[in-house]
Amino acid sequence: MEFEQIIHEFEELSDVDFAENMKKFGISYVKSYGLRLPQIRKIAKECGKDHELALRLWNHGYHETYLLATLTEEPDKVDSVQLNDWVNTFYSWDLVDQACINLLRFIPEAVDSIFIWAKSDEEFVKRTAFSLIAVLAVHNKDSDFDMYFEIIREASSDDRNFVKKSVNWALRQIGKSSRENNRKALDLAYEILEMDNKASKWVARGAIRELESEKVQSRF
């Protein structure tokens, strides 16, 4: 599927009302066609993987073309410059999370950059670090996530909404990945709960509530 065909398809499917409704869910954007994610995923299947197409889609600058770019990009063709350019362009929680799910988890340099992004002052760059940890925990259940515990502890005190939610997500997903990780994540959550910080307590309580639940414990 060629770039021009994709844009024509987006224009045909455009839904102004849905684009406006996205804002109610905290999804910000500069330009949007107002497409739903299943529609974008369907188009992505027709496109396949195509590095040059992904670059054109990204440069087009619409919310949906950014999302489609993460689905069509070839992970092994993403260099350091592109990786950092894309991550520093992130402006919305859903774009961050979809990029982590669709693309970043397949790029070793992105995984290695978690510790750098976790220190960023930019809200969505910092969210990328913890959303990526959460996604890795979903797909690499037997992995050892202890290496991330210190940055999770530190970032739990960040009271920015999209950061603290991603920190909480990372902690919960680690705790759901295996029995051993459940124990470790709960230990960390109780440590965070003792911190004299409102955001930290919110992160910890949410994690403890889910990780100690019968639903989660019964998996093990």
Radius of gyration: 18 Å
- What string, H for helix and E for strand, traces the elements in order? HHHHHHHHHHHHHHH
- The overall pLDDT, averaged over residues, is 96
Number of helices: 15
CATH superfamily of the largest domain: Leucine-rich Repeat Variant
The residue fraction in helices comes out at: 55-70%
| CATH fold description of the largest domain | Leucine-rich Repeat Variant
Q: How many β strands by DSSP?
A: 0
Strand content: under 5%
Q: What's the oligomerization state?
A: single chain
For the sheet with most strands, the description reads: none
Structural class: mainly alpha
Q: What would you call the shape? A: elongated
CATH architecture of the largest domain: Alpha Horseshoe
CATH class of the largest domain: Mainly Alpha
Termini gap: 44 Å
How many distinct folded domains? 2
Question: Could you characterize what this model shows?
Answer:
By secondary structure, this protein is mainly alpha-helical. It folds into two domains: 1-80, no CATH class; 113-220, Leucine-rich Repeat Variant. Helices cover 68% and strands 0% of the residues. The relative contact order is 0.08. The model has no long low-confidence stretch (mean pLDDT 96).
